[in-house]
Write a structure and sequence with these properties.
There is one protein chain. This protein has a four-stranded antiparallel beta sheet, with helices on one face. The protein is α+β, with helices and mostly antiparallel strands. The protein has helices at 16-30, 56-65; strands at residues 5-11, 34-39, 46-51, 70-72. The radius of gyration is 11 Å and the shape is globular. It contains two helices and four strands, in the order βαββαβ. The termini are far apart. Helices cover 34% and strands 30% of the residues. It has one domain: Alpha-Beta Plaits, CATH 3.30.70.100.
Length: 74
């Protein structure tokens, strides 16, 4: 099994209600193959995703399709 990598994104998600809206999508996307969380206390509203399967573009596109800004931080 591959090691998980941590992807970090700057987002426009700024409220717990928005996290709740995204939860089913992110859970479905990541399933049992990783984990995710938002840091809404951070000025960049950070989304951290632990995964060994997903590409950063997949996560960015998913959030963009829901109307949120999402850019991977290097």
């Amino acid at each position: 099994m591959k090691d998980n990598m941590v992807l970090v994104f700057k987002t426009s998600v700024s409220a717990n209600e928005e996290v709740k809206q995204l939860r089913p999508l992110l859970n479905k996307l990541i399933r049992q193959n990783g984990d995710w969380n938002f840091d809404l206390e951070d000025c960049d509203n950070i989304l951290r995703v632990e995964t060994h399967l997903l590409k950063a573009e997949t996560i960015s596109t998913t959030l963009h399709n829901q109307g949120f800004y999402c850019e991977e931080l290097q």
